[in-house]
Specification:
The chain is α/β, with parallel strands linked by helices and 331 residues long. The protein has eleven helices and 15 strands. The strands form two sheets. An eleven-stranded mixed sheet has the order 1-8-2-3-7-4-6-5-9-10-11, sandwiched between helices. It has a four-stranded parallel sheet with strand order 12-15-13-14, with helices on one face. Helix 1 packs across helix 6. The radius of gyration is 20 Å and the shape is globular. The two termini are 33 Å apart. 47% of the residues are buried. It binds threonylcarbamoyladenylate (TXA) and magnesium ion. Magnesium ion binds next to loops.
Length: 331
């Protein structure tokens, strides 16, 4: 069973977790987006333990967390100007960049691919852990593969707790959804996953239009994790466009036959039917992201039969949230 440490001061004692990383063990740690399940990125056997613990397909590459730009540069064969510009501006922070990998990055990390995903986390505990470990840390979100990411230690699955040598509890993650993944190895750069940093802001910083999504018909797919059902609670999720009349939706879906329905809405203060649990979601994308996974974790724990979600507006500021909801609804 994992050792635990709760972090509240400014310079916590992370000797135990840092030593665990160096010795090939797994550590759960907070980031500004979601909790990560970390291992020494330069140690293939340690990285394989992450895949085992999560039940993650070996074809889905991991993000490598670094302490600064210098450490990132050592993991890439080539550091383009776009990388310099974006990392100076957005690191530490929720931006992951994909570049050609250097030979020191094990194939297990990149799923045998030629590129590596790099991110310098904007959470003081995550940064301190990477620095004190002295090695880059490969870390996916600390959930079982395909399931919702944890934004608090209470969300961790028992299998993850059992697999970790240490759990560093830093309280709730501020961002609430994962980092933006930007492929700088394609031309023009491609957004592989929408995230906390909007694609508009990135395009403006680079002064060019970005591609959205991985290049088509690519074999093998550049980012296999992005094609699948993902970020999903156990309860089925049904999406309805914003502004749809909730009573009509419930009738159409014959939801009266369900005993427990949760309805996540942005615009309405009253439940359409008394038996339905109405969850009022923030009408601002940042605040919505912060509470989304926690809301879904709570509903899941109460074993609802279905979660109906009113989609937020189809505008670019809501891209990341709409993306997560869409993937959560795939069955
Ligand atoms: O916010 C985050 O990014 C969190 C925290 C812990 O840092 N991490 C995270 O990792 O979300 P993960 O493994 O759950 O998601 C990483 C995504 C996957 O969809 C994966 O396919 C993609 O990034 N990815 C990783 N390496 C890649 C690469 N070399 N090329 C393309 N996509 C890659
Ligand atoms: Mg994940």
């Amino acid at each position: 069973m994992a050792n635990r440490i709760t972090v509240d001061g400014t310079t916590p004692d992370l000797d135990g977790p840092a030593e665990a990383i160096r010795s090939g063990q797994l550590v759960v740690f907070p980031t500004e987006t979601v909790y990560g399940l970390g291992a020494n990125a330069l140690d293939s056997a340690a990285v394989q333990r992450i895949f085992q613990a999560k039940g993650r397909p070996a074809s889905n590459p991991l993000i490598v967390h670094v302490a600064d730009i210098d450490q990132a540069r050592r993991l890439a064969v080539h550091w383009p100007e776009t990388a310099q510009l974006l990392t100076e501006r957005f690191w530490p922070g929720p931006l992951t960049i994909v570049l050609r990998k250097s030979s020191c990055v094990p194939d297990a990390v990149t799923a045998e691919g030629a590129t590596v995903a790099l991110r310098c986390p904007g959470h003081s505990v995550a940064l301190q852990l990477v620095r004190e470990s002295g090695v880059p840390i490969a870390a996916p979100s600390a959930n079982l593969s395909g399931y919702l990411s944890p934004t608090q230690v209470a969300h961790l699955a028992p299998e993850i707790v059992a697999a970790a040598a240490w759990i560093v509890d830093g309280g709730p993650c501020h961002g609430g959804i994962e980092s933006t993944v930007l492929d700088l190895d394609s031309h023009p750069p491609a957004i592989l996953r929408h995230g906390l940093i909007g694609s508009k802001v990135l395009a403006e910083a680079l002064g060019i239009d970005l591609q959205h999504g991985p290049p088509r018909n690519e074999d093998p797919p550049r980012s296999p994790g992005l094609l699948l059902r993902h970020y999903a609670p156990s309860c089925p999720v049904a999406l309805v466009e914003s502004g749809t009349d909730p009573d009509a939706v419930l009738d159409r879906m014959s939801l009266h036959r369900y005993s427990k329905v949760a309805y996540l809405m942005v615009h309405r203060a009253e439940a359409p039917q008394p038996a339905i649990r109405l969850v009022a979601m923030p009408d601002n994308p940042e605040l919505y992201a912060r509470v989304l996974y926690d809301t879904l974790h709570q509903i899941d724990a109460e074993r609802f039969d279905v979660i109906v979600v009113e989609m937020p507006p189809d505008t670019s500021e809501w891209n990341a949230i709409r993306d997560r909801l869409q993937r959560a609804s795939i069955r």
